[in-house]
Amino acid sequence: MKSNKLTKIFKALSNPNRLKLYHEISKKNEAFFETGCFVYKISEKFNIGAPTISHHLKELENADLITTQRNGKQLTARINKDTFEIIKDLLNNN
C-alpha cells in the first residue's frame, strides 16, 4: 500500500471524535451491513453539532474508511471493508 494512503488513513483517525465515530460505525456495521447504520442514531452519542459530524464523516470518507449513502433525509454509513482489512493486516503484522 502506498504510504500517502496510509498517512491519509491515520491522519483521519488521529482526531478523537473521528476515531470514536469510526468505531461506532464499525460496531453498527456488523449488525446492519446490508442497510448501513443511520448516522443520526450514532451522532446522538456525541456532544458536537451536526455540521461537525458531517465534517468528520467527510474526512473518514475521503480516507476511504467509510462510504455514505443518502436515502431521502436519512444518511447511512458503512465501513469500507477493503480498507478495514488493510489496516487490520498492517496492525497484526507488526
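The record above closes out task 2.4. Task 2.5 opens with a second protein, given below.
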Amino acid sequence: MVSDFRRLVLMSWLFIVASLTVWATGGPFSSTTPVPTEYAAGFANITESDSEQILRHLVEGDMAGRGTGQEGFIKAAKWFASQLEANGFQPAGENGSWFQNVPFIKLLVHADASGVQVNGLECIAGTSYGIGSFAGIFKDSIPVTFATLTNSPPEVSADQYVGRLLVIQAGRRFSAEEEFVLKTRPACLLIVADDGRVRNEAVNQSDQTPGAIPVAMVTRAAANALAAKCGAAAEFFSDGSPTQNLILDSSQIVDCRLSIERESIDVPNVVGWYQGSDEAVRHEHICIGAHLDHLGVQRGELYPGADDNGSGSTSLIQIAQAIHANPLKPPRSVLMIAFCAEERGLLGSKHYTTSPLRPLSDMVCMLNIDMIGRNEESSSEPASENVNTIHLVGSRDHSMQLHQMVEKANESVGFVFEYDEEERVDGRSDHASFSEKGIPVTFLFGGFSSHYHKPTDTMDGINFTKIANAARLNYLVLMMASGHGRFELDAKP
C-alpha cells in the first residue's frame, strides 16, 4: 500500500502533467481553473487527436451513416461495444450481452415498382419516394390535386378528394392521420418534404398501426416536376413552409404506383456498466448517453452524420477512456448507453425507460450529448462567433443542484453556456425520455448549422476541441455526481 506522503506526491505529479498536457493541446478555453487533482489523470487522457481519430472511424469507416435498421448501424453498435470492453466496462444488456434489442417494423420502398407517370412519362421516379406509415401495394390511374397548407388549413367537404391523388406540402409535420386527410379521403397521399426527411428505408415502432390510406413522402423537386406536367406552376411547392393555403385540382390523369415492404426486426441499444468503487452505493448509477444512429443511406445517398451524432458518440467513448485511465474510480456505477433510433422519435431511449435494465429509482441523473461537433451558425450568427459556446439544456429547468454542479465543473473547461434553444430542443433528444420519468438531466447541444440532416455533415468543419471539451466537462460532472448525494428535482409552480 502506498504511504500517504507518496500518494500525495503521485497525485501532485499527475495534476502537473495533466495540466501541462491539457494546455499543450489547447483543451480548456481561456480563464479556466485547474482540474481537481483527483480527476486530473482522466481529464488529461481526453485529447483532440483522439476525438478526430474516433470520429473519423465512425464517419469514414464501413458504418455507412449508421442508419437504424441498416447494416451500418449494427457494425457501429458492435464496434462501440468493443470500445467499452477495452475500457473496463461490463456488458449490461440482455442475457449477459452488450445489447438491448428494440423491436421495430422496417419499411422499404421498392423503387422499381413505384412512381408516377403522366402520358407514359415518369414524373416521379421511385427513388424520389420515402416511407410513411403505409405498407403494401397501390396502383391506379387517377386525377391529381396539389395543395399547400399553412398551420390553419381551409375548410373542406367530406369525401372531397375520393378517387384522387393528393399531393400536399404543409407548414408542419404531416401524416395520413390528419383531419384534413381523413375527412377528404383521397385514394393516395404524397407528402412533400425536404430531402433529409424522404427516407426510402426506415423503422417505425412495432405497435404502430399501418395507415389505411396509401401514403408516401416525396421530394420537393419531384413533386414540382409532376405539378408542372399537370399544368401548375413549375415551383408550386416552394422552399420552406407554405405562406398560403393553395389548392389546385387538375383534370390530368396520372398513373400512380407505390410498393412498400414491411418486416419485423430488432435493433440494439448498446449498454455498458462500469462498477462503482464504493460497495455501499455502487447499486446506484450515473447514466450517460448519446444516440449512435443517424440517417444512414437514403435513396442511394450517404448521410454521414459526423456532427449528428458521431460527435456525441465520440465524446462518450472518450469519457469511458477517461474513467478507466483515472486512478480514482467513481464511487457509484456508470451506465453508458449508445441509443438506436433517436432519429425516428427517441425510440431507443423510450424503450430503455419503459423496459429498464437497472432500476430507474437507482439512477442519480442522466447526462445526454448530441451534436457537439460544429460551431452553431445561422443567417444572423456566423460560426466564428460560436467557437466556445454550447447549449446547456434541461438542468436549469429541472434540478438547480445538478445545474450548479455543471457550472462548477465548467470552471475547468470554460464553455460559454447558452440557453436560447431550450424550448426548441428540450424534447428532441434522448434525455427527454428520462426527464419524463422524473430523473434529473443535462443535455449538451452544440446548436444547428446548414449541415443538419444533410449529406454534407462530413468531417469538414468539425471542431475537435469542442468534442473533447464536451467529454471533459461531462467526465467531471460524472465524477462529481458519483460522489454527491441524490439530486432533487425542482418543484414546479
